[in-house]
Design goal:
Elements (H helix, E strand, L loop, with lengths): L20 H4 L4 H11 L3 E4 L7 H6 L4 E5 L2 H12 L3 H4 L2 E5 L11 E6 L10 H13 L1 E12 L3 H4 L14 E3 L3 E13 L4 E11 L5 E11 L3 H10 L2 E7 L17 E8 L2
Parallel strand pairs: 1-2, 1-4, 2-3, 4-5
Antiparallel strand pairs: 5-11, 6-7, 7-8, 8-9, 10-11
Amino acid sequence: MLPNEGLHDYSVAAEFYDGVKAYEERPDVQFFVDAAAAAGGPVLEVGCGTGRVLLPCARAGARMTGLDLSDGMLKVLHAKLEKEPAEVRARVNIVKGDMRAFELNERFSLATIPFRPFQHLLTVPEQRACLQSIRKHLLPGGRLILDVYDPNLKLLLDERRKQESGVEACFDLPGGRKVERRFRVAAVHFCRQVQDVELIYYVTHSDGTQERIVDAFPMRYFFRYEMQNLLESEGFVIEALYGDYKRTPRDAMPGDALCELVFMAKKEG
């Protein structure tokens, strides 16, 4: 068994996920839709969750396989897929599996890991195992798109993040429930490059009672050249590194900007 107690399964957040405005408005979807369309073959999405990215790719004509370990997230995805037209459903295959070790009877032109699920891999053996599993599922010359948060040192040191913040627009759930989400970083473990993250959901029921639900999990952060070296050591060639989903090169952005690290990599050999 790889040295981690297990990946975060999002069982707490699954029913809330699609209501979060920050996810709904995240500017990455069209980026991945365009990449899937350009792949010219089947696409593997690792950490597909509720299909926030996967379903738009399938609607645009890409043949998609979505891999995820979370029963809760996959339950939501299956329910959403049932409402899609038959031609979209026919292009989607959903697999429950561990991103650290999986075996599918197919090879892919493109693999994607949208919106940072790779950061749930806390140890180097886990990270390598994931990349090895992906690489063996890529066709010769197949590509990988992997995005992670570009760590901002000022934020990592900011003690104010221990307080609940980031109050977002409320959203509604079935049964007359209203949800408000907040966020905090309970601790930063600098030696391990891990943050203890808490997503906090305040649920107000139809009778006015309120419930506070905390989804807590650790997330690894990666520095640019650490991630580059990890990819190259596992047989990938870096073709581009963007700091956002407009394909702005990371080197063209201010050094202290809040950025993504969006790696475009090609299978070597």
